[in-house]
Amino acid sequence: MIQLTGASMRFGAKVLFEDFNWLITPQERVAIVGGNGTGKTTLLKILAGIEQLDSGTITQQRSLRVGYLPQDGLSLSGRSIFEECLSVFDEALALEREQEELSEKMGVLDHEGPEYAAVASRYQWVHDRYLALDGYTKEAQVGSVLSGLGFGKNDWPRRTEEFSGGWQMRIALAKLLLEKPNLLLLDEPTNHLDLEARNWLEGYLHSYPYAYLLISHDRYFIDTTVKKIIEIWHKKVHFYAGNYSKYESSKQERLQQIQAAHKNQQDEIQHLEAFINRFRATASKARQVQSRVRALDKIVRIDVPNEEATINFRFPQPKPSGRIVIRLEHAAKSYGANEVFRDIGCSIEKGSRIALVGHNGAGKSTLIRMLADGNELTSGERELGHNVSVDYFAQDQYKVLNPEARIFDDIAAVVPNCTDTEIRSVLGCFLFSGDDVFKHIGVLSGGERNRYALARMLMRPSNLMLLDEPTNHLDLRAKDVLLRALLAFTGTIVFVSHDRYFIDKLATQVFAIGDGEVRAYSGNYEDYLLQTEREGRPSEDEFARTKPRKGSGKKAAQTPRKPTPSVSDALLSALRLAGSPSNGVEQPKRSKRLNPILAKRVRKQIADIEAEIARLEAETAEFEVRLGASRNHQQAQEITKGMEKRHARIQAYEKQWEELSEKLEVES
Questions:
Q1: pLDDT tens across 128-171, in order?
Q2: Are 571 and 600 in a shared domain?
Q3: Burial label, 43 (beta-carbon count in 10 A; 0-12, 13-18, 19+)
Q4: Considering the domain boundaries, does residue 191 fall inside one?
Q5: Average pLDDT for residues 183-197, to the nearest whole number?
Q6: Which residue, of 547, 578, 609, is where some domain finishes?
Q7: Which pLDDT band, with edges at 50, 70 and 90, does 200 fall under?
Q8: 514 lies in the same domain as 654
């Protein structure tokens, strides 16, 4: 569809990428990754026709439709949400009106006359075209996409200008998905989505009929939506078959190969230089010396990229608290006539890491505020446990910062015992480096100030941390640093995040919020989904309601004293959940176990198949690179045949993988 040849791009004096060749095929599923400022967004804009290459060429097939969603900045007005989305079907709407007009004409014309025949012929063409455009389902399509992205039916007639920037971007995304361009370019599409909308978008992309390229800092979203990674790294663009997890291991292997090749080359260079220096003044060796000088000049030096150092910063640990950290009893919260919670209770134990999930507007941020401040309750009680101190990170936490203070001076005052190097390391984790650390807080954007506020809080944490969207405005590397720090944190955490990977790794319990109530589930988000799927529908006895406390007559729901470990192996997650402790949820009776020897053999076959698929995918990626660099049709045909053979083998192996995996699931 689109071919880049010898593509190069600069930003001022900085080279973003150079000599880049790529053929984008009709079924691409690609994530673009790389550090901040490497040119990811620039590449999308080039493909969208918004920016031009500094050098090289870009060619595309005729009638190619490209759709581009920027990170932010779009604003719509003048129509209702439903009308705005329906406008993408302009051709179908025009045909619909023409059908009505033609139908009226045919009603009054002589059926035997020539004019009637012409009108009837036109009507048939219009009708066929209308069917081809799915005209009869356009309203249903709009409703489905709007619902998936979190717009309730009562929102559909509202004017677009009534919605905030994040919701405006959702409307723009809805229009783009309904347009179904041949090449969909998405720059951080999950930035403005809650977890439920993000999950819906993941499913939508799975069935998307054309190609899409995306940039995202949501690792789980990338893992489940793409089949190829391209990384802009060290001024070059590198291709990796598979998802983000596969890319991480493949990149490490590539770096090790580069380092090994560099070492071998350095050994060769040292050997040549030693010979030249030893025999430079020996006349009988002049020819051999000159030969080695020429060989030395011809060597293309291998440059080992400076890889960003992994930062394993351990944030200070808080003082210990009592076993019960915080308790809500008969708690309610209303905003005027709008009742958010009614008569809820929960008891949170020391060391818990609880994720709050629910649709946008369900009350996740409200519950965090209720836990942070008892004055937020409309009725009921909030009780802190022994020796508990609370830190609350709000989505607009930056508002409490001093705008006149410099970043470095402000955080140094919080942690006076840290060295300048340690402070710079922490700020670097949260994307403040170089002279940025001396900026005044007041000149930072809202996202930058929130990012700094999070770093500042973590440098001196309390033993109960309430975090509302701490992963917003963080890239993948910063999220990893934050995740490692929170996993090592010995206190208690209650958090809201729309990052599925972050929740799965951090949470030991999930509170599902909706309809004014809170329901508690053991484990991480994957466990929560599996449990709700097994339930069919939530049952009343699992609500996070209150239980009798000895001697009080009041109620409080207890969290498990030892949270269940999360399920991380996607392949055998159902098996492991079936074999894990009940966690308060009724477990089905286990059927006859597969013979352990046979099970081991099946797992070995699965592992072998996965390895073979990975090898074939890597070969396919190499073929794609060669295809992008091909210069003639015959060569392109030969490469395409090789790719098709490997695709067929991959499909055959995937079928075997599914059959073997089902055998394990059914018989375990």
A1: 888 888 888 888 999 999 999 989 899 999 999 998 888 999 99
A2: no
A3: buried
A4: no
A5: 90
A6: 578
A7: very high
A8: no
Contacts 24+ apart (CB under 8 A), 133-139: 133/89, 133/91, 133/92, 133/95, 134/92, 135/89, 135/92, 135/95, 135/96, 138/86, 138/89, 138/92, 138/93, 139/86
SS3 at position 514: strand
Do 572 and 604 share a domain, yes or no? no
Closest CA to 526 of 303, 255, 195: 195
**125: three-class secondary structure by DSSP:** helix
In tens, the pLDDT along 307-339 reads 655 555 567 788 888 899 999 999 999 988 888
Predicted confidence (pLDDT) at residue 649 exceeds the cutoff of 80: yes
What confidence score (pLDDT) does residue 666 get? 60
Assess if residue 192 is contained within a domain: no
Kind plus residue range of the DSSP H or E element containing 519: strand 517-522
Structure tokens at 245: 């997890």
For residue 490, the domain's CATH number is: 3.40.50.300
Give me 470's structure tokens: 């701490």
| Whole-angstrom distance, CA of residue 644 vs CA of residue 637 | 10
Tell me the CA distances in angstroms from 615 to 147, 222, 651, one per residue in order: 40, 21, 13
Q: How many domains does the chain have?
A: 3
Beta-bridge partner residues of 32? 230
Return the CA Rg of the chain. Answer: 30
Q: Which helix (H) or strand (E) holds 203?
A: helix 195-206
> What is the number of alpha carbons within 13 Å of residue 102 lying toward its C-beta?
19
Same domain, 398 and 532: yes
Strand partners, 376: none
pTM > 0.85: no
How many angstroms separate the first and last alpha carbons of the chain?
46
Picking from 446, 362, 458, the residue whose alpha carbon sits closest to that of residue 397 is: 446
513-530 pLDDT per residue, tens = 988 889 999 999 988 988
Domain boundary residue, one of 578, 605, 624:
578
Q: Which residue has the higher pLDDT, 396 or 47?
A: 47
**Structural contact between residues 209 and 91, judged by C-beta atoms closer than 8 angstroms:** no
In this structure, the answer to whether residues 608 and 556 fall within a common structural domain is no
Q: How far is CA 642 from CA 45, 613, 645, 646, in A?
A: 32, 15, 5, 6
Residues 329, 291 share a domain: no
> Residue 551's pLDDT band (boundaries 50, 70, 90)?
very low
Q: How far apart are CA 591 and CA 520, in angstroms?
A: 28
Q: What is the pLDDT of residue 554?
A: 36
458 and 340 inside one domain: yes
372: its two tokens: 């942070």
For the beta sheet containing 353-357, the strands, ordered from the edge strand earlier in sequence to the opposite edge, are: 390-393, 464-468, 492-496, 353-357, 509-514, 517-522
Name the packing angle between helices 195-206 and 138-148 (round to 10°): 140
The reply to whether 107 falls in a domain is: no
Instruction: Indicate if 559 and 600 belong to the same structural domain.
Output: no
How far is Cα 460 from Cα 518, in angstroms, rounded to an integer?
Answer: 30
42, 16 contact by CB (below 8 A)? yes
Any domain includes 237: no
Q: Which of 281, 441, 503, 466 is nearest to 390 (CA)?
A: 466
φ/ψ region of 382 (left if φ > 0, alpha if ψ in -120 to 50, else beta) reads beta
Q: Between the CA atoms of 256, 258, 264 and 266, what dihedral angle is there, to the nearest 10 degrees?
A: -120
Q: How many CB atoms lie within 10 A of CB 543?
A: 16
Range of the structural domain that residue 616 is part of: 596-667
- The separation between CA 224 and the C-alpha centre of its own chain, rounded to angstroms, equals 9
**Alpha-carbon distances of 654 from 225, 247, 527, 666, rounded to whole Å:** 17, 20, 25, 18
Query: What tokens does 66 get?
Result: 């490209």
